[in-house]
Design brief:
Helices cover 56% and strands 15% of the residues. It is of the alpha+beta class and 542 residues long. The protein folds into four domains: 186 residues, no CATH class; 100 residues, Beta-Lactamase (2-Layer Sandwich), CATH 3.30.450; 71 residues, Signal transduction histidine kinase, dimerisation/phosphotransfer (DHp) domain (Helix Hairpins, Orthogonal Bundle); 154 residues, Histidine kinase-like ATPase, C-terminal domain (Heat Shock Protein 90, 2-Layer Sandwich), CATH 3.30.565. Strands 2-1-5-4-3 form a five-stranded antiparallel beta sheet. Helix 5 packs antiparallel against helix 6, helix 11 runs antiparallel to helix 12 and helix 14 packs antiparallel against helix 15.
């Protein structure tokens, strides 16, 4: 409202100077030659200021070229007076400008204002009467027919204009306040976060909570309005002490600004709060604040912490896995280098141990490289459309000799319905061979010579997936180990038969199968054998 007040004061000053000039001209017209020129200039300046004030009253943009026209008129008037042009010729541009300015002001009032109609009518009527009286006085001044009535009318309309301006000022303040309230209400209604106002006097209750509470928690506004302690009931029991302090005079003592709220669907969401206590006379009367769902941020922080912990575990596992084979390699290499071993058999045994440990290290490095590329989404697959019986043949041709070269009893089974080439899958054969090989190698390592291994391939009941299954009669897996066997570096408690294992094979297998949109699982009981099974979706042409 500073703009409105400024232009209001300017218009009053201009009109007052104009009326003062009228009085001087009426008392002693022969002594003040410049006074007749000042009257229309003051009146124009006053009307222009009224126009600007009308724009400022309702925050309407206006053009400043109307003010520049007055300067041009002044220049025109000075040149015309110097050239002794008739007064009527000099006055016409001033009068036309005055009429145009009146028309623009009335247009602004009736078509751009957002005030009630009666306010528009009052302001327009007074303004119209004021400007018309000024124009009539200008004609009377040219014809030298001015009377005290003209002076009285200008003074009367100046008083009325001030009265109207006072009303307009009050209405403008109310309009501005209403706009601010509407804007604040609109922000609160459309806010993503939860805005609230909680009063303690005369009794505790939510006087406002934004509709976003339903989107974030599933509960309606009325749930909070009906129960003043509802916010406490949905807070996790371990966080209730925090939220109780936050909604009290001890809010400044809270050192944690988030709690867990149980949503209507039963899940917990992390709600960050920023409360602002309101005191009157040193007494807490209300609490205003914001609640924001930060569950995704907390989850991201937790994932970062888990990733950091996983990296630390990875490093500890790697260092542990490398330590033993490097110790063997170093020890036996020193024995060979120092000619400590006396016979060829011992030297051959030492060289064999060095070779086996070196191969283990090479396999460990390869597995780690594959695992890191998998987890960073840098692992590439070469999928191709393949008939199931052909895939089964490829998988078993490579590995059947490993079974039959041992004393283990092995069998390869392919369901009859898969032998005609009707069913196909979309796979990276190289990666699936790696999975199948891992499962088969584990079965051979954990199965005694008198045991059995069955490799089966069949469709699931819905005929949507192909299933490869490796069943052995070996050591089995302890109950407590079974949920963790697909975790990287996990070896379990029953690993005496295979001490040199990186613990990465099953983890890699799971990620490869998942990349094929399949699933892998293990069924086992300790000392009763194990069944490893992975499924791949059948390929159907779209």
């Amino acid at each position: 409202m500073r703009e409105f007040t400024k232009y209001w004061v300017i218009s009053n000053v201009a009109y007052t100077i104009g009326i003062f000039c009228m009085m001087i001209l009426y008392i002693s017209p022969e002594e003040m030659l410049i006074v007749p020129w000042m009257i229309p200039i003051c009146n124009l300046t006053g009307t222009l200021s009224i126009f600007y004030a009308c724009c400022a009253a309702n925050n309407i943009l206006h053009k400043h070229f109307w003010g520049r026209y007055i300067l041009l008129l002044l220049l025109y008037g000075v040149v015309s007076w110097y050239c002794s042009v008739d007064l009527i010729v000099i006055a016409i541009p001033f009068l036309l400008y005055h009429l145009m300015l009146l028309a623009v002001t009335l247009f602004t009032i009736f078509w751009k204002w957002q005030f009630p109609t009666y306010i528009k009518d009052i302001v327009a009527t007074v303004l119209l009467g004021h400007v018309v009286s000024q124009i009539l006085y200008s004609f009377a001044l040219i014809q030298d027919r001015t009377t005290p009535v003209d002076l009285f009318l200008n003074m009367l309309f100046l008083i009325l204009m001030n009265f109207v301006s006072a009303i307009l000022y009050k209405k403008s303040l109310a309009f501005k306040e209403r706009l601010q309230n509407d804007y604040i209400h609109m922000m609160a209604e459309n806010a993503v976060d939860i805005l609230f106002y909680y009063t303690f006097q005369p009794f505790e209750r939510f006087t406002f909570i934004s509709p976003s509470v339903e989107n974030l928690t599933g509960y309606k506004q009325n749930d909070f309005y009906k129960n003043p302690k509802f916010y406490l009931e949905i807070t996790h029991e371990k966080d209730r002490e925090i939220i109780e302090k936050a909604f009290s005079s001890q809010a400044f003592l809270v050192n944690q600004n988030y709690v867990r709220w149980q949503k209507k669907d039963g899940e917990f969401a992390y709600m960050e709060f920023h409360n602002n206590p309101i005191y009157v006379g040193g007494e807490l009367i209300a609490m205003e604040g914001i609640l924001r769902d930060i569950s995704s941020r907390v989850q991201a922080d937790q994932e970062m912490a888990d990733a950091k912990r996983a990296r630390q575990i990875l490093l500890s596992y790697v260092s542990h896995e490398l330590k033993t084979p490097i110790t063997y390699i170093t020890g036996y290499a020193e024995l060979l280098h120092g000619d400590v071993l006396e016979n060829e058999a011992e030297r051959k045994k030492a060289a064999g141990l060095i070779l086996s440990k070196a191969i283990f290290l090479q396999n460990l490095v390869d597995d780690l490289f594959q695992l890191s590329r998998m987890e960073s989404n840098q692992f590439s697959f070469e999928f191709m459309q393949t008939k199931i019986y052909e895939l089964h043949q490829v998988l078993n041709e490579e590995h059947q000799n490993e079974i039959f070269s041992t004393k283990i009893s092995g069998s390869l089974e392919l369901a009859d319905e898969l032998k005609d080439g009707k069913y196909e899958v979309l796979v990276d054969i190289k990666r699936i061979r790696q999975v199948y090989g891992n499962l088969l190698h584990n079965a051979i390592k954990h199965t005694p010579d008198s045991g059995t291994i069955k490799c089966r391939c069949f469709l699931d009941l819905k005929k949507e997936n192909i299933i490869f299954e490796v069943v052995d009669s070996g050591d089995g897996i302890a109950k407590e180990d079974l949920p963790n066997i697909f975790n990287a570096f996990y070896k379990g408690t029953n690993n005496r038969r295979v001490p040199e294992s990186s613990g990465l094979g099953l983890s890699l297998s799971e990620q490869i199968v998942t990349a094929h949109r399949g699933k892998i699982k293990a069924l086992s009981k300790e000392n009763q054998g194990s069944t490893f099974r992975f499924s791949l979706p059948l390929y159907e042409e779209g």
